[in-house]
Design brief:
227 residues, 2 strands, mainly alpha, mitochondrion, ATP_synth_F0_asu_AS, CF(0)
């Protein structure tokens, strides 16, 4: 059976049942459960330190009202981070390469931030659609432009995450295929290409972490505008 480069992004199935839900829940099993011990192992210490650092960076720009979102944003950050990193392992499926999943995460959270602003400070939230001091003839056009930019925010969140991860996975597969093809013909070139693959893999690890952080950071900035 001939496989294309894009078959790696197809959701795996077992007996006709999609396994994407299982692949989304599996990263949560990697985190140790909290306990009441004073002295814990290094893994628990690293977990607590990472959660504290992420929460501190996300909640510092927000006021006390925004601190209610700490659990949601931190949990989302850890989910995206572990899912993106596990997707770089061989023979694994990355759910965050699916636009449907990323939109399912981005749209409800963006809508929640928007409704929070419209409920708590409707005049200020609607005032973002029209900058102060706008000439009268430009008011209708600017309102349409700002409304469009507001509505495409969740689409931009989902597409950004999907495109970056998909491009990285495709590059890794293309270079891996080139290495396998060149190895019996030109071993030296194959070894040089393997070094490029190693550097690309390190880059993709950084991209996976950065994209998870950017996704949650933009949501926190949208929340900051509405509280």
């Amino acid at each position: 059976m001939n496989l294309s480069f894009f078959d790696q992004f197809a959701s795996p199935c077992f007996l006709g049942i999609p396994l994407i839900l299982l692949s989304m829940l599996f990263p949560a099993l990697l985190f140790p459960a909290p306990n009441s011990r004073w002295i814990t192992n290094r893994l628990s210490t690293l977990q607590l330190w990472s959660l504290h650092s992420i929460t501190k960076h996300l909640m510092t720009p927000l006021n006390k009202k925004g601190h209610k979102w700490a659990l949601i944003l931190t949990s989302l950050m850890m989910l995206l981070l572990t899912t993106n990193l596990l997707g770089l392992l061989p023979y694994t499926f990355t759910p965050t390469t699916q636009l449907s999943m990323n939109m399912a995460l981005a749209f409800p959270l963006w809508l929640a931030t928007l409704l929070t602003g419209l409920r708590n400070q409707p005049s200020i939230s609607l005032g973002h659609l029209l900058p102060e001091g706008t000439p009268t003839p430009l008011i209708p056009a600017l309102i349409m432009i700002e409304t469009t930019s507001l509505l495409i925010r969740p689409l931009a969140l989902g597409v950004r995450l999907t495109a970056n991860l998909t491009a990285g996975h495709l590059l890794i597969q293309l270079i891996s295929t080139a290495i396998t093809t060149l190895l019996p013909i030109m071993p030296t070139v194959s070894i040089l290409t393997m070094s490029i693959l190693l550097l690309l893999t390190i880059l993709e690890v950084a991209v996976a972490m950065i994209q998870a952080y950017v996704f949650v950071l933009l949501l926190s900035l949208y929340l900051q505008e509405n509280i």
